[in-house]
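note to self — DONT lose this again. spent like an hour looking for the file last time. sequence + predicted structure for the chain T wanted, 178 res
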Amino acid sequence: MSTETPLAAHLAGLAAAPFVPELHTDDCNDVACLACKGLTAASLPSVDAWLDRLNVFAKQYRENVEGELIVTGLRVGERPNHVVARFGDAISVRYNGGLVVRTNVVDRGELTSAEWNAKHPVGTRVRAYPGVYGEDGFTTWTTSRAWTLGGHTPVATVEGYSGGIALTHLDVIEEDAS
């Protein structure tokens, strides 16, 4: 006569032949999933490091945008099975080693340099925060087109400050039409 309970038998069965589901499921919300990472210009270094820890090859993906070669995402995996994940996409690595890129599911939270340049010409009035956003800001104007610094941070220069300031630290001052 066995004294093993149904629960103990079930747990023993799982331990003997564990069921390992894919790390990412189709109903995942992409933000809470531990096997997904949202790709933005700001998260690019940490996503690249995460992929390195998973032994997944990744390198910056550059595109020609309005005559300027800029980083727009990551090429993930090795040819011929690589995928391109652009800023705003979520990258999922499945248990079987497959890659999934879900497009435009992450709020990038910032403009790419090309998007900034399309909306804001040189000379745009801004409130600039060169250090901590919201602290010690000053009113000025841009003196350059935006570019991607270090392959991951879109920046522009402004009058009165030497060096680039992250676009996330520039608030455009809308001109009154009156």
